[in-house]
Sequence to fold (289 residues):
Amino acid sequence: MTSRWLPRLWRTATGRLGLVVVAVIAATALLSVFWTPFDPQASSIAERWLPPSWPHLLGTDDTGRDILSLLMAGARTTVFVSVGAGIVATVVGIALAALGALTARWVRETVSVFVDILIAFPVLLIAMMISSVWGGSLWVVIWAVGIGFGVNIARVTRPELRRVQQSDFVVAARASGLTPAQSLTRHLLPNVAPVFIVQLSWSMAVAVLAEAGLSYLGFGASVVEPSWGILLADLQRYIGVHPLSVIWPGLTITITVLALNLLGDGLREATDPTLRHRSAETHTPAVVA
Fold:
């Protein structure tokens, strides 16, 4: 399946840009496990507030730490949280969508009410409430964002599952002896994949924002863990004196979230045949008699 839609993803401008940026961020996170230009937590009073220059390409902060090394190490935290939240959202979303579309009526209605109740609570508020009880950590962000957006994925995916379930080929497959679980994996989920992928990419983008925001407020990563949100909170106090230093973590967060959204749009266009046909019709020149 990947071999079919990956070339189509690369042909779209948004998908190509999003894929490249996300790949660079993931590679940076992996590289930072083994190497960074400087120790991210090493302070040097003699090197406080150095401007961008060699060897500190993005300058240093108020304690002399290298900002580029801090951003590279923070990419590990970002990738960990976004992937973890994506996995939790996938499991929760598929489970609730399947229960809400393929089970008995009383189960579907119960799941629908449960989903509507959970959607009423913002993801960040849930994370802050959990943090106040269990303490701030990356696992709190992962579970809060994963459950919160898993519910959103279920709400969007459930009607699509119901629609595909009533299709002729699915009815014929069930009549031939296909079990509901086999029908779900072979026919239903592949046909709702475009909708699911867009929602999943958005949940991962919000996971990046949630981690940075909660860490900024003190509810996310601990102070000993590298985080773009913590770095932004540390530097924003000096924005009037050293404004350039605040730009780097804010710009990194913005680019990451934008890239995930662009990648989701590109994946939707690459995997949804209706969008491909519509795009082809749009770019087909009209024949003038």
The longest helix spans residues 180-217. The two ends are 41 Å apart (CA to CA).
